[in-house]
What we know:
The structure is a single chain. This protein has helices spanning about 1-20, 25-35, 40-50, 55-95, 115-125, 140-145, 175-185, 225-240, 315-320, 340-345, 360; strands at about 130-135, 140, 170, 190-200, 210-220, 245-255, 255-265, 305-315, 330-335. By secondary structure, it is an alpha+beta fold. It folds into 2 domains: about 1-95, no CATH class; about 115-360, 2-Layer Sandwich (BirA Bifunctional Protein, domain 2), CATH 3.30.930. Strands 1-4-5-9-8-7-6 form a 7-stranded mixed β-sheet, sandwiched between helices. Helix 2 (about 25-35) runs antiparallel to helix 4 (about 55-95) and helix 5 crosses helix 10. The longest helix has about 40 residues, at about 55-95. The chain is rod-shaped. Bound molecules: 3,4-dihydroxyphenylalanine.
Amino acid sequence: MVNAVVDKLDSLLEEASSKISQTADIKSLEDLQHEILGKKGKLTQVLRGLSELSEEERPHVGKKANEIKAAVQKLLDERLLSLKQSALSERLEKEWLDLTLPGEPVPTGRLHPLTRVLREVKSIFSGLGFEFVQGPEVESDYYNFEALNIPPDHPARDMWDSLYLGEKTLLRTHTSPVQIRVMEKRKPPLRVISGGKCFRRDAVDSTHCFQFHQVEGFMVDQGVSMAHLKGTLSAFAKAIFGPERKVKLVPSYFPFTEPSVEVYIDCFNCGKNSSEDQQPSSPNSSSVESGLVLSESCRICGGTKWLEILGAGMIHPFVLRVVNIPSEYTGFAFGLGIERIAMLKFRIDDIRLFYESDQKFLEQF
Ligand code: DAH
């Protein structure tokens, strides 16, 4: 009787050992554990036979049963560990990451071309000792016009046709009012630039928009002359368009400057071969033979060899009087369009591109 139970226990261990070693995953191992050691498992069934044994036989078989149980448990534990290990190495193999691979490029934003030019202009003038100040975009008629020698009904108002918010308030049409605001509060010597949005009632086309950006600059001190104006603006033109640039001042008219000038640079596209002011040559002229770039074919200057970049002049005595600057002081002032500079610098032929937020356009800068 005893031997029969012991045999059963031995063959149970043998069967368990072979089944355990064949399990392929943790789930089937758990099922197997249940099948052998569970409440209604095979071991329990074998132990039922114990009741038929005598008092002396029972401890011997009971000890054997415990040994078998411990042996099965040990086999189960070892198998579990090895299944876990192979599951882990399988996962490590599958989820392997090559950390030396270059990362996915993250799309980054960049500065808008107008912001870039505005910053560049600021930094050039800051290098020349000009301090940057900000002015309001909503202006009064007084600062935008009257204090700048543009009284009501002055024909020059047509040039700066505006967007009015009230009878005497408007969106500023230029940055020149900043001159008045600064000189009202501070006394010379002054070297100031300002910049930002301006607005005009202009129909939108390839060179006009109802909103654009200007930089205004002025210098007031004793003995300031046109020579200072030309020197400052030449330094600016060389810094932004290249050291070989020349500037030319052409008489013009602004109510707030006297004399007034338009400032030109020689065309950086075709003007590099000419030191003289040239009229557009006839389409038949033989500049190809002389090795020059055909000026009449120049897309930048249209053959004139000169590009207008800004308006400037000596600050009108009227303006200086309005802000109570003593008469021993003189000053120059200038105003430039950021869009115009950016269009020339980056060879852009349509101002609308700046405002369309087209990624393909903006990504080029
Ligand atoms: N305010 C002028 C405009 O918007 C530009 C300008 C011309 C500004 C001459 C000046 C200047 O300071 O002296 O067209």
